[in-house]
Each structure stands twice: as structure tokens, then as C-alpha cells.
Design a protein that fits this description.
heterodimer, A: 5-stranded antiparallel sheet, 19 helices, 20 strands, B: 612 residues, alpha/beta, 6-stranded antiparallel sheet, binds siroheme, binds flavin-adenine dinucleotide, binds flavin mononucleotide, binds iron/sulfur cluster
Chain lengths: 592, 612
């Protein structure tokens, strides 16, 4: 028992200190999985079902693989006496969203040959494949391996892909920041050899003398890993594209001119909540101090171990670190951290955010090279009648000398394009044009600032449409803005198909979360650059009701906003909603 | 009951009377078979079924040899033997598969009932006997009298070939034909019965028999269990419903089993049958009386430019031509007989040429992708008389579908698994008559005419503890659904192993969730699947069988019975070859011995096929 926990007399009845039998069933699954091996290999060989057997689908998450089924086909197939159309989503681990052209080519090939023909850019700067069949899992994983990509811990109760502001035009700082983000990501990877054994036919790790007794493969995590998923993001002010306050750990870069000196550390962010369970809520991280650039890895590790030891392992709904902090108190948390570090964080430094958005179109780097940030609606890379985005990017990858950067807003930056020569600005620009990508990027501000999660047909948790519906909804919003003369005003709108908040709707100026087919909760008043939570405004309403409420708000905003006043701020000043000052209070604002 | 009483003492008679009173037709049928089976327990040579009848004089003795694969020929043979013995003749019916060839020369009167299978081949079980009879070792048969009836299907090029071969060969060997051979088409009952009558008459003349013994009346002779009752009108206790008197079953439900992206269409059909109306066992098939598609009938009328109102007579009944075409006549399948007659009438050289023996393959190909209307259009014939035309055509035949459900499991329902025959040749749609009739021209709630087509040669082992290996591709898996339901319902302890093959796992895994349940419940011990189009290399059930040869051999050595159902052209021979390899490699037998091993399996009813 640590000094700090004794001092703060905290309750340990639901954490790692308890015997596994007393904890959530998933804890037993992890404990008995032999470091994430389970019976996955056997599951893959079972020819009678397209699904994994037993609890293996829980374990594959740690390998970046989710078992899903095409929900559009469920009923139909039940009648046909066919099992659900099982298929898998695979999420790549891509620290900071940086990807090389050769890797893009491989991703494109896999998407076409083994997945559903599309690539999905995610809100955490990486790629997802959908619709991969069980028998194609191994080929996919090996294909990724060939291009030096992996999917380790892209999902599961561990530290997920680490985010970092994709901001190449501030080269110097990004140059220094990216390796640190990568180092944190690598340091917190599970060390289990299971991934290599199962997917890459790696040599089974040697067993210690004691029969069957597995060697301890996880110095940081231990055999039951974390109580829940864990997320880390690095932001470079003034851009908060990574929504640094929604991360379990947010590192805010503090630069002195071109030199990265260190980070303000924010802890306890998270979006996920459960409708009608008021003990669950979105929460923004608290800035608890400053650490030097070279201390980031150590700080991250210690924070992770705190959550490992004190996080709730009985009720997964309240197991994220944000609840651990609120349960035992921020002072305890800071003491505990300092105790584990053996030194103390410095006082937080001043910083200033302006936007959470991508800067679309062309931008120039200090070294004279160019970037093109393109809009990918809801992150879905595919060819349509309007734009042959997927083919275009494939061709760009073939001639591109720089790299690609997936942004936290599900968009893509073709970065570091040389001014001159083959594969230079002129060549890339030609392809962007001929494939209609430039045109697709030239959309309304409100659409370009919007995000929607995947939801149907693949997401098992979806309650309402999101990715497939949001574009149509945005068209209606665009009409409203035209009428009110706000067409050029950026407003951050985000939609998710359920309460989990994968597109971070709870920090949007206008957010939606699905409740049932065609029915959504509406949230209003979030901070334009992610500094304030949105306030619950309507629950379980359809499109018409939503637009009925939105119209007068926008009219009033158009008429009465102050110079440069953001819609979220205005909604509060105009009294549509009261601000949510603290995650805990989020549900007090629910319309009842 | 009189004669029963005559045989039994008072008490017995009363018990029997009491019992019989309570029996449904189906039960009576079963009991008659059962009793016959009990009687047969005292019978002579294995497989042979003696019709010893009290008071019959020894001479002349009739041996009825039959060559059967799906039981029809056996039915006819047993019927003949029964009738003969009831006329006081020494008569026995023997499956060629069980017959000792060297006894041939001892036979005084030989009657042969031979079915044809494959492409004009003898039925598998009789293959050995045919080799012997048609080969050089066959004995001279001077002094033997014989008569042959063949069962066949005139839509095959080699119509009744097996029967024709035996008939010719026996004469060649010096035997004396006492009755001309009769070749029966798919609706063989009437011609076969007529042939039996004639033969009995002929035999009477050879040797007037003593008083027929009443005792043997009313018993189905030689039956060896409920499943094997010959479907013949003559025998008492015969089913109420038959091909001639079909049962009207309501369609309960029809589900397309194939996934939405499948390039096949296989449907699951559920029919409602009142309990006890039809008695059937796993392995039996259901005969379905189809109707032609209007478009198909109209195409014919158009080609003949007739209105359809013209009256014609088909098998004695008069109908307007249009009705006859829709309900009575085969239009989707050509027969060589029709082609021959039409070629004559139309003086169509090309057609005539096609019918010559050496053009066999061309003819097969032509018949596979053309229908009656195509022939009419291709070789027009001015002013063909409606009646003359109708007389050229074959009667619309029922189609058989393996019953996919167990009566013990679901007493009042029959399930079928139907692959819809719908394909285009030369841009002409070619829709199978029966499969599309069931799949699209009949809705749930409507009724279809059906009858049970027994198949004693495709039956679960008597011993519930015997292991069972089932190999089926496509709709070939249908009877195995019935097998497993039966084994589950009766709590049979034997292990069950299913091989299933189709095109694609995701789209074509017929009854996937049901197999999964059987596996979970332990009814299905193991299952292997082969999906030919899921990988670049085509994989079929026979390949899986080879991969599992070690286990297969172990099962065989432990007395497993093997069942093969489905495609007759590709799969069945492929599986046979695979099994042969298994025996050679695992049992290390020579190739010949392996062949013998399989023949023995077949002989012991441990290797059964139902292929089409
Ligand atoms: C792909 C993505 C949405 C997108 O449109 O981009 C996504 C998709 C899914 N999320 Fe998420 N989440 C995604 C970012 C997020 C974010 C945003 C972020 O992290 O910045 C959040 C909110 C932040 C947070 O974690 O609080 C988020 C909160 C959740 C939750 C709720 C967690 C909680 O604490 O309650 C779940 C459900 C759960 O974990 O039980 C979830 C679960 C899921 C699953 C895997 C559903 C499942 O568990 O079976 C979704 C897969 C759908 C599909 O078919 O692809 N996802 N998910 C994002 C992938 C990010 C990545 O690359 O790793
Ligand atoms: C014992 C037995 C059991 C059977 N069990 C089943 C069963 O369980 N399920 C099942 O679906 N069928 C089963 N069959 C086959 C079934 O009886 C029919 O033959 C089949 O449904 C086709 O009949 P149809 O009337 O639809 O087509 P038809 O009208 O008989 O055929 C139309 C024309 O198409 C041709 N043809 C048919 N299929 C093809 C093809 N694939 N390619 C090219 N030409 C073709 C025929 O030669 C004919 O010229 C079984 C057959 C037998 C003998
Ligand atoms: C796969 C298969 C192939 C057949 N081939 C022929 C054939 O070539 N010639 C023929 O006249 N009948 C052929 N028939 C029809 C059978 O001879 C006919 O159904 C007969 O009634 C079967 O008698 P059985 O039940 O005694 O075997 C074939 C039947 C099947 C199922
Ligand atoms: S928010 Fe809900 S519906 Fe959308 S992807 Fe996440 S879990 Fe699925």
C-alpha cells in the first residue's frame, strides 16, 4: 500500500488487490489467457463457423482485431439457417498517424483484396479494415507485417495508439515531438509474444522449467493488463486536433520558439458514457503540472501503473481512469504519481489553443516542401461517382516522396511534397484534380469540421446510423446555414451511433449520440477547440425536431453573435444551455 | 380374418383381430413387413428370399434375379416371386449382388428384373454379376428358360441398357426366351405388372400348378423390414397413397437457403402431412408431380401455331391441347424416343444423324440444352396433327427429392432441399419443370401432389451403435439431415461424421446453424467441409476424405457405414476413388483387393449411395 493511498485512505475493494474471482469476468479471461494466447489458433482452424470460439474474441482485441457481423444481414441469414455474416475489423497501430507511401500501397492492396474494398481513417489517426473473413485474418496480419505495420494493442485493455498533432508546417516542433510520442507508444506496448506466435508463425516462447508455468511476459501490465482501454495524445498549441482533454493522458507541448522544452500533463479525460446511468459521464482532463520532454515516457508509464493498480476491475462501465481519479480524488492521484516518480512535476506552463481543426488545402513547411490536407468525409476512403479518392491516393502513393498523415479529424495530409521534380507539387496537384479530390476537399466549412463514427452496419454497439446518415444530415444543415447567411462559419458538429462517443461528440459545439434507429440525443455548447464539454440539450429525438431547434438558434447566432464569437460560446451566452463545468455534473444538465 | 383364424388358435386369433382393429394403414403396412421379415428369419441363402409355400410341388422352380440400386427392381422382383409362389410355384427373388454365379447353369426358369444406372450402366451392386454374365466365363445355358423386364428412364440416351444386355446375352448363351422383354419407363408399375401377369400365364402353361395356397395371401413376401416394402399395388397393406394416387400436401414454408450473394438458388421446402398418412424413413425420397410453366407450354403452341383448344387424348383421357401440355406431357426434358419419332415425321436428317450410336455425346449435349419447343422451332414441321404430336411425347414424370426430415423427429412434416434448375443455354432460359414449380409457381398455403419413393438401398444401419459416415455435396446433404434427426430422436449411440461440400462458405453452407447445433449437442461427432470456390485451388469432399484418410480408415475398421449422396457424375466417382485410395494407403491393400474391399462393403450394405 503506497504512502499516498494510506494518507488518503482510499477504498481498494474493486481493484487489482482483490482476488480475480471477485472481479469482472473479463479479468478471469485475461488472467487465464496465457498472455493473450487463449485458444485463438484453434479458433482460426475451426471450419464450421466464421466466428472465433469461446472468449477468443475478447483476446483478439488486444491484437487489434474485433469480431463483428454485417448487421444488415442478421435477420435474413437467421431465416436462411446461416450463421451471422461474421467478419472482422482490424485496426492498425500508427503512432501519430504517420505512414509511408509504400505502407499506403500495401494498405490499399489489403483493403481491395482481403477487406471490403475501403479504408477507414479513424478519429485516432489510424486505419481500419472492415469485412475481413476469418480465413483472411492471418494473410492480412502478415501483409501488414511485411510493410512494417502491426496492430498490437490497437484495441483491448491496454494503451491504444498514441495520437500527436499532425502539423507538419511547424516542422521543428513536430520533428522533436513525434519521436517522443512514438517512444511512449512503443514503451507501453504489451510485450507478450502471443501476437508473433499466432499471426506471424513466430517461435513459441520458451516455457520456464516449472511445467506449463508461463514466464512473466508483461513487466508493466502484468497478466491482467489494464482494467480498461487507455489513451494518450500529444497536442501542439495552438492546434488541439487530438482533443487533448479527452485523453486519459494529454501531453500539451510547450515550445520555446522552435525548441520543444516539455509538456503540460493533463489526466482523466474520456468521452464514453452510458445513457441513463448517471454515474457514467464524459470528462475533460485536468492539467496537473509540467514535465521535461525527456520525462514524458517515465510519466506516462507511472500514470499507467496507477490506473493498473487502482482502476475499477469489477464494473467496466466505470473502469476508465477518469473515474479512478474522481473516486479517489485528484490530490491522491498527484501524490501517488509523485511517489511513484520519486520526483514532482513542475508547475503547469501557459499555453493557448485556437482550433481543433485541420487546415485544409496547401500549406508550406519551413524546409520549403509542401503539404496538402484533404477532406475525407467521415474518414471513409473509397471511390465514389464524385471522387475516385481511393484510386487517386493509390496513384499518389506510387509517386510520393514525403509521407501521409492521418489527422484526428479523420482527414488526411499528403505531407512533405517537394516543390520541384517528379512526384513534386505539380504532379501531386494534377492527381488531386483528376481524381476529384481537390473538389471534394472544397466543401462547406461546417461539413469539413464535422465527424461521424462508423456505426452501422459493422459496429455491434450501434443503436442508430451515423457514418451512413450524417452526410445527408449535414446537407440539411448546410441549407440552414445558407438561409441564415452562415455558410462560411465553421461550426464543429459530430455524430456517433451510440453513447460511446467515438467521434467525441461531447466536446463538439453541436453533438449527437444515437439512441435508436432515427433517434438521437443532442448536445450543445461544447468548446470550439475542445476546451469545454457540450451540454445535454435534447434526448431521443428525430431529425425534424433537431432541425426545428437548430434553425432558431442559428438565426439568433447569425443576428446577435459578437465578432469572432463561436457558436458553442454563443449558445451558452444566449441561454440555450448552461455550461458543463465538470464531467461529474454532465448528467445534472440532462433534460428530464 | 378367416384364414388367419384358420392358422391360429382362438386366443391368438382374437389378439390379432384386436390389434389389427387399432392399426392405421401405415402401421398395418409396417406390421405386414415386420411379419414378413420375421418369416424371412427362417429363409435360406443369405439375401435370397424364399417363398416356400405349403403344398407347392418342387418343379418347376423360378428364380427372379434383380439388379437394383434404389429398390424399384427389387420391388418388382418380390412382387413376381410372391405372385408365383402364391400360385404354388417354387419361387425366390435374389439380388444379383448376392447371387452365386456358378448356380446359373442349375436354374430352370430365370426371370430378370434389371434397372439401368449411370450412363447405361448396370446398378452398382450388380456390377460384378454383369461382368461375369457378359464375360467369357459365363456358362452355356441350354435348357434354361428366361424372361427379362428392364426398368429405366427414357430421358437417358441408353434407355434400359442393362436389361437389354442381359436379355441379349442370355439368348446368346443358349437360354430359351419364353416372353419378350419389356422396357419400362419411370412410371414402371403398370407395364411391370402386365409383364408379371403374362409371365405367370406363360409359366402356367409350362407347368399347371396345384391349388394356390390361401395362406400366403395378404402377406408381403420376402420383405426384410418396414423400409424395404416394395411399393406395389398388388400386395395387401400397400400404402393408401402412391405415385398413382398421390397425396395432396400443403406447402408450409419455403426458404431460400442460399446467401444473397450466392450464384446458386437452393430452397428449403416444408410440407405438411397428417400424421400416419405417409410412412417414410430416412433415405426415402418424395416424388413430386410438377406442372409445366405456362410460358413453356405456350412456346410449344406458338411453334406449332396451334390455339391450344384442340382436343387430344393422353393415356385414355381427353384434354384440350393446352391443358395436356401443361399437366400431362414432358416439355423441358427431351427423350431420344421423341427425337426419333419427330425426326421421322419432320424428315430432319440432322436430327436422325444425331441419334446414331456413335454420336452419343453430341446427343447428350443436345438433350441437355434443348427442350421440346427448341426442336419444334429448329426443325419446323408444317401441319403436324395435335394428336400425332402428343403421341410422340413422354408423359410428364414426377421428380424425386430426398426427404430431408425424420418422421420420428417431426411426424407431420416433410422437408425437402431443392436446387432450382435455372440456367441459360444459347441465351434461352432453361428452367427445370419441377424445381421451379416448387420454388416459384407454388406458394405456401397451396398444395402439391406427392408420394413416397422408398429406397431400401439407402438406410441407416439397424445397429444404433454403428458409426455412420455421411458424404454429401450440395443438395446431397438433404437425407443426412434426416439421418441425424433420426439418430438424435432415437438416441442412437453410434458416432456420426458428416462431409459437406458446396461452393462458398459464406453463401452456400446449407443448414449451417443446424449442423452447428448437432455438433454442440454431440449428435454430430465431427464435420468436415469443402468449399470449392473459397480458394484458388478447387477443393471437394473427396479431397477432404483423402486428408482424413487415417481417421476414415479407423472408422471403417470399427464397422462404420458410409453413405454418399448427391451428384452422380462428378462427386460419386470422385468419392469412390478417394475411398479406394484410403483402403490402399491405410489398409495397405493392393488396388484389386481394395476394389474387393469396397465391393464387400457394398455387399454388407455398409457402403450405400443415392446419387442423381
Ligand atoms: C473507428 C472509431 C470511430 C471512428 O469513426 O473513427 C471507433 C470505433 C469503435 N469504437 Fe470507439 N472508436 C474510435 C474512437 C473512439 C474515441 C475517440 C478517441 O479515442 O479519441 C472514443 C472516446 C474517447 C474515450 O475512449 O472515452 C471511443 C470510445 C469508445 C467506447 C467507450 C469507451 C468508454 O470509456 O466508455 C467504446 C465501447 C467500449 O469500450 O466499451 C468503443 C468501441 C468501439 C468499437 C470497437 C465497438 C466495439 O467495441 O465493438 C467501434 C468499432 C466500429 C467499427 O465497426 O469500426 N469506443 N472510441 C475510432 C477508432 C479510434 C482508433 O483508431 O483507435
Ligand atoms: C433419387 C433422387 C433423389 C434426388 N434428390 C434431390 C434432392 O434432394 N434435391 C434436388 O434438388 N434434386 C434432387 N434430385 C434431382 C431432381 O429429381 C430433379 O432431377 C432436379 O430437380 C431437376 O428437375 P427439374 O424438373 O427441375 O428439371 P428438368 O425439367 O428435369 O430439367 C430441365 C432440363 O435441364 C437439364 N438440366 C437439369 N439440370 C441441369 C444443369 N445443372 N445443367 C445443365 N442442364 C441441366 C435437364 O437435362 C433437362 O434438359 C434427385 C433425383 C433422384 C433420382
Ligand atoms: C443417376 C441415375 C442414372 C440413371 N441412368 C439411367 C440410364 O442411363 N438409362 C436408363 O434407362 N435409366 C437410367 N436411370 C433410371 C433408373 O433406371 C430408374 O430410376 C429405375 O427405376 C431405377 O430402378 P432401381 O430403383 O431398381 O435402381 C438412372 C437413374 C439415376 C438415378
Ligand atoms: S460511437 Fe458507438 S456506434 Fe459509433 S462506432 Fe463507437 S461504439 Fe460504434
Amino acid at each position: 500500500m503506497s504512502e499516498s493511498s494510506r494518507k488518503h485512505e482510499i477504498d481498494r475493494s474493486q481493484d487489482l488487490s482483490q482476488p480475480v474471482e471477485k472481479l469482472h469476468p473479463n479479468e478471469k479471461i485475461k488472467a487465464e489467457s496465457d498472455y493473450l494466447r487463449g485458444t485463438i489458433t484453434k479458433s482460426l482452424d475451426d471450419p464450421i463457423t466464421g466466428a472465433l470460439v469461446g472468449n477468443d474474441h475478447e483476446l483478439t482485441k488486444f491484437h487489434g482485431i474485433y469480431q463483428q457481423d454485417d448487421r444488415d444481414l442478421r435477420d435474413e441469414r437467421r431465416r436462411k439457417k446461416l450463421e451471422p455474416a461474421y467478419e472482422f475489423m482490424i485496426r492498425v497501430r500508427l503512432a501519430g498517424g504517420v505512414c509511408q507511401p509504400t505502407q499506403w500501397s500495401k494498405l490499399d492492396e489489403i483493403a481491395r483484396t482481403l477487406a471490403n474494398g475501403t479504408l477507414r481513417l479513424t478519429t485516432r489517426q489510424t486505419f481500419q479494415f472492415h469485412g475481413i473473413l476469418k480465413r483472411d485474418l492471418k494473410p492480412t496480419m502478415q501483409g501488414l507485417h511485411e510493410s512494417l505495420l502491426d496492430t498490437i494493442a490497437a484495441c483491448g485493455d491496454d494503451n491504444r495508439g498514441v495520437m500527436a498533432t499532425s502539423l507538419p508546417e511547424l516542422d521543428a516542433v513536430h520533428e522533436q515531438l513525434f519521436p517522443i510520442a512514438k517512444a511512449v507508444s512503443d514503451h507501453l506496448l504489451p510485450r507478450s509474444r502471443a501476437y508473433h506466435e499466432i499471426w506471424l508463425d513466430g517461435e513459441p516462447i520458451h516455457r520456464s522449467a516449472k511445467q506449463g508455468e508461463p514466464v512473466d511476459e508483461e513487466p508493466i501490465y502484468g497478466r491482467t493488463y489494464l482494467p480498461r482501454k487507455f489513451k494518450i495524445g500529444f497536442a501542439v498549441p495552438p492546434v488541439n486536433d487530438v482533443d487533448v482533454f479527452t485523453q486519459d493522458i494529454g501531453f500539451i507541448a510547450i515550445a520555446d520558439g522552435d525548441e520543444l522544452v516539455g509538456f503540460n500533463v493533463a489526466v482523466g479525460g474520456g468521452m464514453g458514457r452510458t445513457d441513463n446511468e448517471d454515474e457514467t459521464y464524459p470528462r475533460l482532463g485536468d492539467v496537473i503540472g509540467f514535465c521535461a520532454a525527456d520525462q514524458a515516457v517515465e510519466v506516462a508509464e507511472k500514470i499507467v501503473t496507477i490506473q493498473r493498480d487502482f482502476g475499477n476491475r469489477v464494473d467496466r462501465k466505470v473502469a476508465r481512469m477518469k473515474y479512478t481519479i474522481d473516486r479517489h480524488g485528484l490530490p491522491w492521484f498527484v501524490d501517488e504519481l509523485h511517489e511513484r516518480l520519486g520526483w514532482e512535476l513542475g508547475p503547469a506552463r501557459p499555453y493557448h489553443f485556437e482550433t481543433s481543426q485541420d487546415r485544409f488545402g496547401w500549406s508550406r513547411n519551413q524546409d520549403g516542401s509542401w503539404n496538402y490536407a484533404l477532406f475525407v468525409e467521415n474518414g471513409r476512403v473509397k471511390d465514389t461517382d464524385q471522387a475516385t479518392l481511393m484510386t487517386g491516393l493509390k496513384e499518389i502513393a506510387e509517386i510520393h516522396h514525403g509521407d501521409f498523415r492521418v489527422t484526428a479529424n479523420q482527414n488526411l495530409i499528403v505531407a512533405r511534397i517537394p516543390e520541384e521534380g517528379p512526384g513534386g507539387k505539380t504532379d501531386i496537384e494534377a492527381l488531386l484534380r483528376s481524381h476529384g479530390i481537390a473538389a471534394a476537399t472544397d466543401r462547406s466549412n461546417v461539413r469539413r469540421h464535422s465527424m461521424a463514427c462508423v456505426a452501422f452496419p459493422t459496429c455491434p454497439l450501434a443503436m442508430a446510423e451515423s457514418e451512413r446518415y450524417f452526410p445527408h444530415f449535414m446537407t440539411k444543415v448546410e441549407e440552414l446555414l445558407e438561409e441564415t447567411g452562415l455558410q462560411d462559419t465553421p461550426i464543429v458538429m459530430r455524430m456517433t451511433g451510440c453513447n460511446n462517443g467515438c467521434a467525441r461528440p461531447y466536446v463538439a459545439e453541436v453533438g449527437f449520440s444515437g439512441r435508436a434507429p432515427g433517434k438521437y440525443n443532442m448536445y450543445v455548447g461544447g468548446g470550439f477547440h475542445g476546451e469545454r464539454l457540450a451540454t445535454p440539450y435534447l434526448e431521443n429525438v428525430g431529425e425534424d425536431t433537431i432541425l426545428e431547434h437548430l434553425r432558431p438558434m442559428l438565426e439568433k447566432y447569425a443576428a446577435e453573435r459578437d465578432e469572432g464569437e463561436r457558436f458553442g460560446d454563443f449558445a451558452i451566452r444566449a441561454g440555450y444551455v448552461a455550461p458543463v463545468l465538470e464531467g461529474k455534473q454532465f448528467n445534472d444538465h440532462r433534460p428530464r | 380374418m378367416a384364414q388367419v383364424a384358420g392358422l391360429l388358435d382362438e386366443a391368438q386369433a382374437q389378439q390379432v383381430e384386436a390389434l389389427l382393429g387399432t392399426l392405421s394403414p401405415a402401421q398395418a403396412l409396417w406390421l405386414s413387413g415386420y411379419l414378413a421379415a420375421v418369416g424371412q428369419g427362417m429363409a435360406v441363402a443369405p439375401g435370397a428370399t424364399a417363398m416356400a409355400s405349403p403344398g407347392a410341388t418342387a418343379k418347376p422352380s423360378l428364380t427372379v434375379l434383380y439388379a437394383t440400386e434404389t429398390g424399384n427392381a427389387e420391388g418388382v422382383a418380390l412382387q413376381l416371386a410372391a405372385a408365383a409362389s402364391s400360385k404354388g410355384m417354387e419361387a425366390k427373388a435374389v439380388d444379383m449382388a448376392d447371387y452365386r454365379p456358378k448356380n446359373l447353369r442349375k436354374e430352370s426358369i430365370l426371370a430378370v428384373v434389371a434397372a439401368t444406372h449411370g450412363e447405361g450402366d448396370p446398378p452398382d451392386p450388380a456390377a460384378g454379376f454383369f461382368e461375369y454374365l457378359l464375360g467369357r466365363k459365363a456358362p452355356k445355358l441350354v435348357g434354361t428358360k428366361f424372361a427379362v423386364v428392364s426398368l429405366g428412364d427414357s430421358s437417358y440416351v441408353e434407355f434400359c441398357k442393362a436389361g437389354r444386355d442381359v436379355d441379349a446375352r442370355l439368348e446368346e448363351l443358349g437360354a430359351e426366351r419364353i416372353l419378350d422383354r419389356v422396357d419400362c419407363d419411370v412410371d414402371y408399375d403398370e407395364p411391370a405388372e402386365a409383364w408379371i401377369e403374362e409371365l405367370l400365364a406363360a409359366l402356367e402353361e409350362l407347368a399347371p400348378a396345384p391349388e394356390a395356397s390361401a395362406q400366403s395371401d395378404g402377406v408381403v413376401p420376402g420383405a426384410v423390414g418396414p423400409a424395404t416394402l416394395p411399393a406395389l399395388g398388388a400386395a395387401a397393406g400397400a400404402p393408401e397413397y402412391s405415385r398413382k394416387n398421390p397425396y395432396r400436401a400443403e406447402i408450409l414454408d419455403a426458404v431460400v437457403l442460399s446467401g444473397r450473394d450466392s450464384d446458386k438458388e437452393t430452397i428449403h421446402l416444408e410440407l405438411s402431412v397428417e400424421e400416419d398418412a405417409l410412412a417414410f424413413e430416412p433415405g426415402d425420397s418424395l416424388g413430386v408431380m410438377p406442372e409445366n410453366e405456362d410460358a413453356v407450354a405456350e412456346a410449344v403452341l406458338a411453334a406449332l401455331n396451334l390455339s391450344g383448344s384442340e382436343p387430344v387424348t393422353v393415356h385414355g383421357d381427353e384434354h384440350p391441347l393446352a391443358d395436356a401440355l401443361k399437366h400431362e406431357l414432358e416439355l423441358t426434358r427431351l427423350t431420344p424416343a421423341f427425337l426419333a419419332k419427330y425426326a421421322e415425321a419432320a424428315a430432319a436428317e440432322e436430327l436422325r444423324a444425331l441419334l446414331s450410336a456413335e454420336r452419343r455425346d453430341d446427343l447428350n449435349e443436345f438433350m441437355a440444352c434443348n427442350q421440346v419447343s427448341d426442336v419444334l422451332r429448329g426443325y419446323p414441321l408444317e401441319g403436324l396433327e395435335p394428336q400425332a404430336f402428343v403421341d410422340m411425347l413422354r408423359k410428364l414424370q414426377p421428380r424425386l427429392y430426398s426427404i430431408a426430415s425424420s418422421q420420428k423427429w417431426m411426424p407431420d412434416q416433410i422437408d425437402l432441399t431443392i436446387a432450382v434448375t435455372r440456367f441459360t443455354r444459347d441465351r434461352k432460359p432453361r428452367n427445370g419443370v419441377a424445381s421451379t414449380y416448387l420454388a416459384e409457381r407454388k406458394e405456401p398455403g397451396e398444395v402439391v401432389e406427392v408420394y413416397i419413393d422408398r429406397n431400401k438401398a439407402f438406410k441407416l444401419p439397424e445397429d444404433p451403435a454403428a458409426p455412420v459416415i455421411m458424404i454429401g455435396a450440395g443438395t446431397g446433404v438433404a437425407p443426412f439431415r434426416a439421418f441425424l434427426q433420426e439418430r438424435a430422436e432415437t438416441g442412437a449411440t453410434g458416432r456420426n461424421w458428416l462431409f459437406f461440400g458446396e461452393r462458398r462458405f459464406r453463401e452456400d453452407f446449407l443448414y449451417q446453424t443446424e449442423w452447428q447445433r448437432f455438433l454442440r449437442d454431440g449428435v454430430l461427432t465431427r464435420m468436415d467441409v469443402a468449399f470449392s470456390r473459397d480458394q484458388s485451388r478447387k477443393v471437394y469432399v473427396q479431397d477432404r476424405a483423402r486428408e482424413r484418410r487415417k481417421e476414415l480408415w479407423e472408422w471403417l475398421e470399427e464397422g462404420a457405414c458410409i453413405y454418399v449422396c448427391g451428384d452422380a457424375d462428378g462427386m460419386a466417382p470422385g468419392v469412390e476413388a478417394a475411398l479406394h485410395d484410403v483402403v490402399v494407403q491405410e489398409g495397405d491393400y493392393s488396388s484389386e483387393d481394395a476394389g474387393e474391399y469396397l465391393r464387400q462393403l457394398r455387399h454388407d450394405r455398409r457402403y450405400q449411395k443415392d446419387v442423381y
